[in-house]
Amino acid sequence: MVNDAYSSTNNNLGNLKDLAADNPLRLSIRTAAQTVRDTTPLAQSFTNFVTINLVANAQLAAGGTAAMSFLPDDIAGGEAASGASYINVGTLLPFYKDALKQITEKFHADHHRWVLDPVAAGMGTTRTAILKSFKAAPPTIIRGNASEVIKLREMWELPLQENDNALDSIARQSSGPVGVESADDVEAAEASAKALARFIAKSDAQGQGAVAVSGETDLVTDGEHTYRLPGGSAMMTKITGAGCSLGGVTATYLAVADPLTAALAASALYNRASETGEANSHGPGSFQVAFLDGLWSTTPAQIAASPILA
Amino acid sequence: MVNDAYSSTNNNLGNLKDLAADNPLRLSIRTAAQTVRDTTPLAQSFTNFVTINLVANAQLAAGGTAAMSFLPDDIAGGEAASGASYINVGTLLPFYKDALKQITEKFHADHHRWVLDPVAAGMGTTRTAILKSFKAAPPTIIRGNASEVIKLREMWELPLQENDNALDSIARQSSGPVGVESADDVEAAEASAKALARFIAKSDAQGQGAVAVSGETDLVTDGEHTYRLPGGSAMMTKITGAGCSLGGVTATYLAVADPLTAALAASALYNRASETGEANSHGPGSFQVAFLDGLWSTTPAQIAASPILA
Amino acid sequence: MVNDAYSSTNNNLGNLKDLAADNPLRLSIRTAAQTVRDTTPLAQSFTNFVTINLVANAQLAAGGTAAMSFLPDDIAGGEAASGASYINVGTLLPFYKDALKQITEKFHADHHRWVLDPVAAGMGTTRTAILKSFKAAPPTIIRGNASEVIKLREMWELPLQENDNALDSIARQSSGPVGVESADDVEAAEASAKALARFIAKSDAQGQGAVAVSGETDLVTDGEHTYRLPGGSAMMTKITGAGCSLGGVTATYLAVADPLTAALAASALYNRASETGEANSHGPGSFQVAFLDGLWSTTPAQIAASPILA
Predict the structure, then answer these.
(1) How much is the ipTM here?
(2) N or C terminus of chain B: which is more exposed, having fewer CB within 10 Å?
(3) What are the chain B neighbours of C181 within 8 Å (beta carbons)?
(4) Overall number of domains in chain B
(5) Quick check: C66 and A240 CB within 8 A?
(6) Considering the domain boundaries, does residue A310 fall inside one?
């Protein structure tokens, strides 16, 4: 998410064009952002201990409300009031394996929409078992870094399409995340992202789903159409929880919009707010403060006008 | 806690008068705030994962010290050094049901004073079982939003007084919190707050207890006398943990003062500090920073001079 | 860590001299700090819920990367990618006793280096059992406050040297921490710190180890040589996690340097960054922000030039 990263490092994307101002997607994004501001929707979260506070504060700053829980009976109790939910596997406790199976099966049975952040996919046997179990009760949106998206596609053993083959070879070289950091470029995850999006859309009652890969230039796909969102700030890699909280805000938007719109709107908001944050800070401490202020002050019109290449 | 909320929305409170400058309660509040500054009392907490950092930082900023734990043997070990303790049920783990029963029974046996924040009362079977269990070993102060206070009174099946009947009918209409947000006005919780305060005072060794209901205008009662504290900032609803950390600071004050004084002092401090925070910020990120600075810089005299209507 | 504390309260240290500018230790410190900036090393953490976010953000601000976990299979999975690890026992869950035994035994078998923060040593039976178990698979660096260091030496039943006898008598008077705060001066922990350092060095494959005692004037020892680092800011006691995050940053430095260098570099960085923080803040909220910015902006040359008395 560095301002000048797109032109310098992604020359293979040089043929892409920014969506026109009257593209229907821009209207959808603007409507989603405005609806969040107007209705303060609840998106409940089952998320990690490191960044749980930032996830809640980012959802509030974006205009939604937050509730966090780790118990199936709590999450079930909050499902009706939540327009969507969020599951992030960053830090795990032993009982999560059963709890998350129970929760995601209920979401699936109820057609309740949710966002998954497959943090550190590939690390540890418990994490792998949990992430594999989600294949039977999939999320509506997956938001991760490139390595996580590549690993999750591999775990779910999803086929890559023929015209994805060039990238397939890159994806197969991934050895997974290093800790919670991506070891791969966003572009290397394109084929995996599309395969995951096609799979989750098939399992959705309305046939919808989206995958967002965060990095210097974000990639968002519904399996059929793929978009790149340049911009943002490299300072996002210098605070913990930039990605986790983006997953939470994506759930906030999913509470009022379709998955593709929600994923695009959240990534666009994050790019604008992190640029505001960088312009108003002297280091990671003041950056996080200014970034949260940016989530709060970025308007639906500004979000909708953000660069989206296709 | 919005500045102009009192006059516009609570016209039924129009007959109330601000306490005189020489009212003994104001002296008690000032003494409590000064004693906290002078003696940095410890109030240990068993609190939720979302806002645990803010609870500790707010207690430190108000002049106390903090220690957090989830194990009965730890809490028992810290009881003697703690002037009071704090239990907040925001996020629950499976083992809490037994742990909290053991902890509160020990507090009760030892006449150790503590503050309860019944976060999201009514949500989930585990939470309900835990909150019901506290009736047998009650807290000294309850601090919650209106829906939580109404639900807790209902769970504990406490009688409402005859002259509370008008409000009783309102309370009975509550369907509980939406997530962690109140679905009810503070005033709708008056009868429930008084019933809870009377009950916990009866179980206290010195016959004391208080209930604080947070909202646009906070309500604090010891069951006999009821006070309203107008002011504060609506930005408090745009950061996570405003209420949780108020519960923690209330425990800090309870370590050096009687329950009514502690509840009033903490709510008054929060109103002043959040006004300072709003005046020195551009969004929720900078608001939280300026609010913590406000907790630190608000003087005992300013806390004691805060509007308290009766 | 107060600027003027050294001269006023530690007159018994008056004969010590600041290390010369060309002392090899200063070069080691500068190299360590520069290497962290250049290589962004990963140091994984098993740490407490109160300050886990600050630990990660401090590691990032100092130039490293962070990954947090509570499962032995996760930690084992992350060991190879981590130059060092960090264990902090601030908040405990029931399953930690087995998990931490398993983790530290694996670290020991693999000669994997790690930093221990023995938070609130002496409080609670679970904590005591966990801390005692570490004697069989010791850390490479211990970072704590004076009371914690004194208590840990006592728990491990380590002998104090003859010439430590004067301080021994002081150490024996400690009753342990009050909550998470030290009840003892840094100087009272000198003999205990040296005894612990000698013990952990003996168990290290390369015969190295260090103990850092944080306070107004920090003390760092490898068991043979002992250094004092004056300076810093008293505001560090007004935010939660100053010590915890120092432990995390010490692990970040340990990923690229020997234990003595890592402990000195981290303490020196904290003293400089907290002075910057105090100069740019109006209370604990803005202090934490400015402190994180200070961790980010303090240069390797400034860290290496920090006062180190011997």
Answers:
(1) 0.93
(2) C
(3) 42, 65
(4) 1
(5) yes
(6) no
